[in-house]
Amino acid sequence: MVEVKQAQAHEPEAATTTLLPPAAHPGDACSLVDTPALLLDLDAFEDNLRTMQVLAERHGVALRPHAKAHRCPEVALRQVALGAVGICCQKVSEALPFVAAGLRDIHISNEVVGAAKLRLLAELARRARLTVCVDDAQAAQALSEAMLEHKASIGVLIEIDVGQKRCGVQTPEATVELASMLQSLPGLSFLGVQAYHGGLQHKRSLDQRQKACDKAARLVRRHLDALKLAGIPCSIVTGGGTGTAVFDVASGVYTEIQAGSYAFMDTDYGSIDWGEALAFRHSLFLLGTVMSTPTADRAVLDFGLKSTSTESGAPELLGHDGLRCVAVHDEHCILHAASPSDRPALGQKLRLVPSHCDPTFNLHDSLVAIRGDKVEGVWPISARGLSR
Amino acid sequence: MVEVKQAQAHEPEAATTTLLPPAAHPGDACSLVDTPALLLDLDAFEDNLRTMQVLAERHGVALRPHAKAHRCPEVALRQVALGAVGICCQKVSEALPFVAAGLRDIHISNEVVGAAKLRLLAELARRARLTVCVDDAQAAQALSEAMLEHKASIGVLIEIDVGQKRCGVQTPEATVELASMLQSLPGLSFLGVQAYHGGLQHKRSLDQRQKACDKAARLVRRHLDALKLAGIPCSIVTGGGTGTAVFDVASGVYTEIQAGSYAFMDTDYGSIDWGEALAFRHSLFLLGTVMSTPTADRAVLDFGLKSTSTESGAPELLGHDGLRCVAVHDEHCILHAASPSDRPALGQKLRLVPSHCDPTFNLHDSLVAIRGDKVEGVWPISARGLSR
Predict the structure, then answer these.
(1) Is it the case that residue A8 has pLDDT exceeding 50?
(2) CB B19 to CB A359 under 8 A?
(3) Nearest CA to CA, how far is A228 from chain B (Å)?
(4) CA nearest to B73, candidates A23, A302, A17
(5) Rg over CA atoms, chain A
(6) Residue B11 pLDDT
(7) Which CATH class is domain B104-259?
(8) Do A387 and B123 touch (CB under 8 A)?
């Protein structure tokens, strides 16, 4: 029996859960946004979208931005409006709000295993043009059976392991064998291959990235040559990302690139060498309030690990030379001020650039879209938490 | 104008967002739980609750478990049912679902700064017995004004920095000065102090923790002595945590302890030396499915950083000697098998122990409560994402 102390003279609990207002309203000054909040600077964001779209179009390569980066349909709609052919999702359930928002061309850039997920995938395939990755004969068989059972059909790409050491077939021979099987399985259309190497994206020097990309492209070409020799048509070669996009589009191998972070530019991507190649701007910010100034050299912000991911480092303050984030606790960021005059005041709001956008988006339910000093919209991050 | 390719012959999108079933249903066998999922082993969980409750009661110290660890009202109701005096929340908005669930004695173990949050705090203070921390005169003034404006009253504790170097007043003199001010501010009742030191909780050896606790307790006593000398009554001394609980309850300083992780026992707490003092069991598990077995020594699970936090390390497989998690990507865990026979099969489900429970809970919308091999309930993690 649950015994809960009932304090006297308190109001009834009705509507307790509706007490929380939105973090911001369109038209608000940015200074009114409640914290912690995730801000999107629309001017920088739109510049980034155009920069990548122009790069892809110049090389005749399709841009299929990765929605795993943001999980936000309003972002995807703007990417498609500018010319993206569709989007990628990494998980089946993640695709749901994008289909609901009207996106109709989605590549699930991942293997899907398990009866519940295959059922959901088939349901989605009846509602949108869907493609999915496979790297295993048994999984391909299960995928085909699910499509048959639910009267759906789906495009299939074979994932090739080009050095990431994650999923994917290992040899051109295995690719040909699996492609032959896929051609014969009902409910499936073999369309091409996926070759993605996340590790390459973050190599610091442009030269290192170029060399690593060339190596991956040579590997992809061996698989493509083997398919050609076997007489198996392959119309899609999808892969690539923000850090390697400039090489991927010029490689002659990829028909589409899957970049995601380019729209936001976290500190991790911000710290790699971009040369003259591309110029992306930071568009994504964490907004925090100084909630304590206990010493002359310390200020504490009101967000932590539950609002920002840290596996690529602490979020960074830009334009505050004497102030830096020295620790991130569950609900606090600890800032160190080089001198007392660098310490922000109690109640002051500060913007920080997250170190890794994908898992940071996944911690927030909404994205506060701002232009200049005004809130333009509050966009639901509808696929937040949809990881099945 | 957003242009979205409309594929032909697709079903209308109605109900797309309702396609996703719950990850599990009460009565299901555990093998049917869809992944990724967060599992709570109720037998181990209930043992842990009893162990800590017994420890606290044996020393006449109140147990006020920290709800920031789990953000799940069903967990808090069970803690209170066993004798906890109430709960702690770290954020104002986090407290909302707990008040809605019937919890009526909540300590906000943190400073609250900003008009929107103070308004919410006052609204909650009209519905439950609330206490909150302050460490600043200006913040105390704003808190009092908010209580007056919204016709509410609240208990106030001064947070003391006992070495964590986060928030909190720095000297006994500052504590006395602030307490005197709090006594005179309308809408506020000065009730005591909070002294929490997160860093101590995780020191590996029992002896190190004992010494660090003693040092913190001596510091607290200096503040308490100064208050006594000034004739200011102090009825609550709250603090302590899972790692130091055994010393905190015996210190003679604390009137209540704020432990949270004891209920779940992540790998970080699991790896510290517990001596003969207390025995907690792992009750919290991440359930993943093997979605790819690309090589003889590699298997890939279908969850990553979006389902488990890693700032305290990768999640761990217990009871699988030849298999370990070697990398955590955004949506994948990479497992390395010592020999081919150690590699799990495609589709197999595996349980891993998370390294840090608090931010891991915050990545999930529900907690699948299991007993033995059956699902007993699916509990909403209602305060997930409520970080304002």
Answers:
(1) no
(2) no
(3) 23
(4) A17
(5) 23
(6) 52
(7) alpha beta
(8) no
- The CATH number for A24-40+281-380, chosen from 2.40.240.10, 2.40.37.20, 1.10.287.370, 2.60.40.10, is 2.40.37.20
Listed as ranges, residues in chain B with pLDDT below 70 are: 1-17
Handedness of CA B321, B327, B328, B330 (dihedral sign): negative
Provide the percentage of residues in chain A whose pLDDT is more than 70.
Answer: 96
Topology (CATH level 3) of domain B23-40+281-380: Lyase, Ornithine Decarboxylase; Chain A, domain 1 (2.40.37)
Question: Which CATH code, of 3.40.718.10, 3.20.20.10, 1.20.1600.10, 3.40.50.740, is assigned to A59-263?
Answer: 3.20.20.10
Element (H, E) at B377: strand B374-380
Comparing CB atoms, the residue among B103, B290, B331 nearest residue A4 is B103
Read off the pLDDT of residues A233-290 as tens digits, 9 standing for 90 and up: 999 999 999 999 999 999 999 999 999 999 999 998 888 998 877 889 999 999 999 9
Tell me the residue length of chain A: 388
Give the DSSP per-residue string, A38-86. EEEEHHHHHHHHHHHHHHHHHTT-EE--BTTTT--HHHHHHHHHTT---
A362 CB within 8 Å of a chain B CB = yes
Q: Report pLDDT for A16.
A: 66
Domains of chain B, by residue range, sit at 23-40+281-380, 104-259
Which residues of chain B lie closer than 8 angstroms to A387, CB-CB?
Answer: 36, 303, 306-307, 331
- Is the ipTM beyond the 0.85 threshold? yes
Q: Which of A376, A387, A346 is nearest to A42 (CA)?
A: A376
pLDDT confidence bin for A195, thresholds 50/70/90: very high
Candidate from B21, B128, B385 with C-beta closest to A7: B128
Residues of chain A contacting residue B290, judged by C-beta atoms under 8 Å apart: 113
B109 touches chain A (CB under 8 A): no
Task: Report the C-alpha gap between B213 and A158 in whole angstroms.
Answer: 57
The B residues from 289 to 308 touching A (CB cutoff 8 Å) are: 289-295, 298, 300, 302-303, 305-307
- Among the partner-chain residues A34, A113, A302, the one whose CB lies closest to the CB of B346 is A113
